[in-house]
Amino acid sequence: MRRLWYHGKVDPMDRSGRRYEAIGVEDEKIVFLGSDQEALSQSWDQRTDLEGRQVLPGFSDTHMHLLYYVLFQKNLALFGVGSIEDIVRMGRERVEQTHPTCLLGMGWNQENLAEGRMPQRQDLDRISTEIPICLLRVCAHIAACNTAMLERVKELRDRTPRAVWEKVDFEHGFLREEAMRLYMEIIPAEDDGEIKEMIRKGARDLNAAGITCVHSDDLQVLSGVTPAHMVELFRELERDGELTVRVYEQCLLEPEEFEGFQALRNAPEDRTSLFRTGPRKLLQDGSLGAKSAEMIAGYVGDEDNHGIPIHTEEELYELIRAAHRRRMDVAVHAIGDLALEKVCDAVERVQGEDPWPQARHGIVHAQTTTPALLKRMKDLNLQAYIQPIFIEADMEIIAQRVGEEHAQECYNWKSMLDLGIHASGGSDCPVEPFSILDNLRSAVTRQNRAGTRIFLPEQALTVEEGLGLFTSQAAWASRDENVRGTLEVGKLADLVVLDGDLFHMEPEQFPSVAVCETVLNGKTVFASFS
Q1: What's the domain range around 221?
Q2: Residue 185 has pLDDT above 90, yes or no
């Protein structure tokens, strides 16, 4: 089928700086870019008058948690909640309304709670002493549990590694870092039909935001579902024509699962499957909010606390080495500068032993950096999966955590790009919403949503640079720069139509721009023209 969009503002994001009036697609690929006059002289099966709207490459989010997003929509969302009393009230209301066998929630942030502390076991016992309750902090690196949940957790002790068990705080009711996964063995399991509907629901919401590709971490999210089975469910949806977003899976695997998983990987040359296995996902530290990110100098007023390392340096090296020798990229969660330093050390060691110039290993978050660490990232060809929207909350706490001087070296996205580091943008949803336009606003303005605070304005990106995080650079992050990420003849027809012109409006207005149409492989997967 030949489709034409004309009378528009088509921005290819290909560094040419050109703007076209029309774009044409045949089947899955772009076949025309040019003027209205030239376009309308050709034969098309379907024509859409854009009425001056903007067309961009389909948006990508290069770090999120698709199934987590839907899972917590189904349960108790606590994002933006203002007090522990509100948490207790909302929990009681949910229990009274739905009578769950287990209550799961996410989104609280002690920095925003009136009580100025984390909710504890005794607080959640006020919701219920009968059903297990687990409420994750917004960062998903610490969770508060009630006594009933902790009693169920105790039943898992005999099959829980000591290093994990040590991260359970029974007195206050906290699960930290690896211990967070214990709740997954207690909550009710979802069946295959429910999981597929979760994926379909998440994809619909992504399409409505103009998103055609996500790098998602889904293999260890749901109780009782093995990574192999989760891969099969995604592939079944694709085979049945029900997957409406590209999913590049960041594969979080237990060490004992890794070798067996190799048989499930997509072929290296596969650039067109909607579901593809991507890098090996690794976690090296926690979060700033939970004071578990690994910091070289510790935390202000708590200098002996250097965070919580997930792996020893030798373990991290072995995990990266195992992927590297299989020619599988790694994407390592590293928020603290100490964690980033350890990843750099491990990659440098691995590359020295087994050179692989084509590797695209990367750092997920890369928030607290130094000029020396950024230079090492460039020298090692480490890409950065960044989340501009994070400064919305973190500009309030970063100096409190690391000090005013070090804070000046954090969230330095402009410095990354100036060095030539490949950086792509994500939301870490459900930690933050996956609104690309709000994320873009943050990258360009460095302001909070209210416009009352600004953080390191010299690190702000241009609109073109910001859009690149979610288009061309995002395609590079998944090795797809030759097939998508820009609007060029011969590339896959992934595009988004916006009711506004991002290059000719105030960046503060970006979030108000409506997504009118989202196109994946030449087919409309979302449309809402007013």
Answers
A1: 193-477
A2: no
